[in-house]
Amino acid sequence: MQRILVVNSKGGCGKTTLTTNLASYYAAHGYTTVLMDHDPQGSGMRWLSQRPVERPRIYGIAPHQMRSDMTRSFQMKLPPDTERVIIDVPAGLSDLKLAEHTRQVDAILVPVLPSPIDIHATAHFIQVLLLAAKVRSKNIRLAVVANRVREHTEVFHKLERFLATLKLPFVAKFRDTQNYIRAAQDGIGIFEMTGMTAQRDRAQWLSLIAWLDQNETMGQEVAFLSSYRANAGNPL
Ligand SMILES: Nc1ncnc2c1ncn2[C@@H]1O[C@H](COP(=O)(O)OP(=O)(O)O)[C@@H](O)[C@H]1O
Ligand SMILES: [Mg+2]
User: Mean pLDDT of successive 10-residue segments in the chain (236 residues)?
Assistant: First the structure.
């Protein structure tokens, strides 16, 4: 199972868009997928409620919308065969909450808009993630995704340089397009849209999916090494 947290202290940078499209990608590719919506505004759950029944199922868990006639732990329970959990959190979390949310995740994605205000806020936020949430010491993989991009701007290059100094990857760049808005209205993601209109956008996601897939490969390498060591170096 892989848990992917989508987070940034800024609102409106594309957290929910990233969450819903990732969830729809994995569901459409046959993974048992859970969308966990920690945002009290519940945009992710609203998207899920629009999802056509004939589409591959995505399980929704919303800690802010718990029913009082069932226990919390029952409602928070993941389906037993869960393979992907995509977690959407609200903007402006306290350092403490942030540390809580990063506790049990495998990868963190930080979407950022290429505007000076967003880039400065995100640069600060990444430092908080590294210091307060101690993301590096927990071995959590962290990457930045540029959203609604117009490349070749000076401020965008500044962000690239800043990320390079932190040795953080810029794993994907998504363009600004109505396709995301249309898909969101229909409870689907751009990978589930028919026709050619979103083809360019789908291509922009492949580097992100490949980066996330490395998580499994790395996990397998660790498992291989530990079982190799347990066997005292005997060839497996
Ligand atoms: N790449 C994009 N192109 C066009 N519109 C986008 C794109 N990404 C996000 N949006 C729109 O921007 C708004 C904010 O995005 P959202 O994902 O809700 O941000 P957040 O969850 O970080 O607050 C939404 O209306 C969404 O549809
Ligand atoms: Mg949101």
Answer: 97 97 98 97 97 98 85 86 98 93 95 88 91 87 91 77 82 95 97 95 97 72 46 39
Is residue 236 in some structural domain? no
**235 located within any domain:** no
Are the C-beta atoms of residues 4 and 106 closer than 8 Å to each other? yes
Q: Is the residue at 9 inside a domain?
A: yes
Q: Is residue 203 part of a domain?
A: yes
5/104 Cα distance (integer angstroms):
9
Burial of 158 (C-beta count, 10 Å sphere; 0-12/13-18/19+) = middle
Q: Are 21 and 189 in contact (CB under 8 A)?
A: yes
CATH number at residue 168: 3.40.50.300
pTM of the model: 0.90
Mutational test site, ligand 1, from 38, 115, 145, 181, max ligand atoms within 8 Å of CB: 181
The predicted structure's pLDDT at residue 217: 57
CA distance 42 to 123: 26
Distance 3 CA to ligand 2 centre (A): 18
Query: Could you tell me the distance, in angstroms and rounded to a whole number, from the CA of residue 1 to the centre of ligand 1?
Result: 27
Ligand 1 centroid – CA 62 distance (Å): 20
Tally of domains in the chain: 1
User: What domain range is 121 assigned to?
Assistant: 2-230
